[in-house]
């Protein structure tokens, strides 16, 4: 069931088209990684979904509700963490969360327990009585996430949540998002750190110049993009024999040799690959590894996007 | 000497950026319109006797000069105060530090740029000056003296602004202090003495007569006041040494401010100190603290209760954190205002003979003007601060309705005024007790003050939401409030006086124009033995309704902006 859906979503700023006919579907429980170069339209999409920006054309639905027509209803079910945000001076963390809890109409009787819960979840319990303006960047990110989770939103829109964080804070943020995924939240997350998105997201969308280039499971996208499999072979002995066998095998092209390591493109199915491995061993080649390079999110990104401004 | 020369790369960048902005064009157009209107209104109709022609020309030149002078006071400190502090807020000052440009080069470039913009405004009004010069009786030395004085004043204003910009970390504080210092230093001690004399004699309506009479004197104190010197040039009553003395004083003042600015700019930025003290929940400890520090109204370490259901969180936040976190400052303000008010009311009560009605009104009108300035300072950053700190998006994402947000902001502004209003009320009590028969005039006075406060607050909050930047919000708030409080009176009233012979509408008594201003309707209504309470009441009601309309406009604008990226 689609919980976030956009149809021909377009946003223009005077003559500049920030978003062009975007059709996007995010299923309930998905962790959707939204990737693209700077200025691709990620933040514009997120701001339209979070009711902060009106689209020029097209519609966007969250949980079946039109975001342009019913912004108040959307805010009840949606949590948005912007890429840049501030904190109020002179407020302690608990007071800060109490203010936003009250602003989200959470009854006072429940508010205290909810604040304790989000503080525990974001590992900020020990900082509850500290002034938010004194927090480090990482703690401010957690603080903002705690605020975003206060009203228990079904959908979380996180715009660059790990930007500017040190490695430890980034790892902690990643763990936190995994916990949220286990809690059943639907998360749309935009980030430039592709390796982290690969670990966390079950689906990705790649956007460039306001146009969605690809969306879905990134391994499926990679398979659809690659005509050939990329195979890696490493041998201990019998490199020359291996080179002869590879050269004589139909379906193997573009063999690159570096000492005892081989990289090749293979138009073979899994059985044919297993047969090739057997032939190598029978020819006396001592095979150390024979693996398929599945590629990662960076490969997908580089394949799909063109770059340039 | 070379070290104080401006960095040309910064001048070029700043000027280019300024000239690309629409607001620079708007400044030029606004000043040109104002100066042009002044000349148009002053232009004599029909046959003017030849003996009066020179006087008319001088009057026009004087009016244009005053317009430019007011333009300088309004624009220059604001532009200058924003220069360095904005670099600090945008984190570009460190990048500037790392270049080979000296701090003195940065400061002089910023001053030069600000004065350059003002010169552009003056050049924009050259056609108006040219028109004035068609009249006879003027010579170039007068024009040169006026331009020299205006440029010197602009340099002083720019230096004050840049100094404040180097001193403070926040735009808002830099702007408020820059404007306050500009008014305080440029108007000089002479005006303070004059106003005190007028208050003590209870003759507010003769203020300009005092100015006129004082111009002829070669008084040493007048050289500190550029406005006074401008009036002197117009009346040709200055001694030969006075204008050079003023220009010399301005030059020395600029140099002192310059070296102080460079010194403060070099000072490394200290991170804002944030209290690391935790809240205290133990009642015994809290009680002990209360005994040790009895002046605490609210112990800052006492944990604040959670916001109750049904209460507007925005209002609670604005009042609780806006008021109590500034508790110390507000208590100081209370004692300062109380002291001034107490002395003034005692002077008025004892030194004015039997009736103190006129002095009370004079004092309340001055109070009104001061409170309006304070309100503009307090409320101009109410929304601008949310934008500048990056909190506005988070606020827009909550379930708070625009009405609640605006109501919260207004409550916060009014609550911040409580200490001042309280000090004024208590400080006025001796006056009411000593001169009981005239004390009733305090009641309409405080009602006028409340209406003017409502008007200024609503105007400042609207400009804060539209402008999004503190400096623009503050300048816009002051301009809109000034228009609402005095603008109609100034434009229609003065226009009527000038165009009396060709006035297209039915003739009215000149006193009626005072009722176009909520501020001036009070002294106009209650100066006579037979007060015009109804006319005053109608004026106050209309302006209260205008304040309501401004609040409605703010709410509508916030609703509109909910789905619009600023």
In short:
Chain A is an alpha/beta fold.
Number of strands of chain A: 14
- Structural class of the secondary elements of chain B? mainly alpha
Count structural domains of chain B.
Answer: 2
Q: Distance N terminus to C terminus of chain A?
A: 36 Å
CATH architecture of the largest domain in chain A: 3-Layer(aba) Sandwich
Largest interface: A-B, 43 and 35 residues
**Based on the structure, what is the oligomeric state of the protein chains?**
heterodimer
Counted up, domains of chain A total: 2
The N- and C-terminal alpha carbons of chain B lie at a distance of: 45 Å
Structural class of chain A comes to alpha/beta
Query: At the third CATH level, what is the topology name of the largest domain in chain A?
Result: Rossmann fold
Structural overview:
The complex is a heterodimer of chains A (about 300) and B (about 575). In chain A, helix 3 packs across helix 4 and helix 8 (about 220-225) crosses helix 11 (about 295-305). Chain A has two domains: about 1-215, 3-Layer(aba) Sandwich (Rossmann fold); about 225-300, Alpha-Beta Plaits. Chain A has helices at about 40-50, 70-75, 95-105, 110-120, 135-150, 165-180, 195-200, 220-225, 240-250, 270-280, 295-305, and strands at about 1-15, 15-25, 30-35, 55-60, 65, 80, 155-160, 185-190, 205-210, 210-215, 230-235, 250-260, 260-265, 285-295. Chain A contains eleven helices and 14 strands. Chain A has a six-stranded mixed β-sheet with strand order 6-7-8-3-9-10, with helices on both faces. In chain A, strands 2-1-4-5 form a four-stranded antiparallel β-sheet, covered by helices on one side. Chain B is mainly alpha-helical and about 575 residues long. In chain B, about 75% of the residues lie in helices and about 0% in strands. Chain B contains 22 helices and no strands. The model of chain B is unreliable at about 205-210 (pLDDT under 50). The chains are: A alpha/beta (about 300), B mainly alpha (about 575). Chains A and B meet through helix 2, helix 3 and helix 4 of A and helix 13 and helix 17 of B.
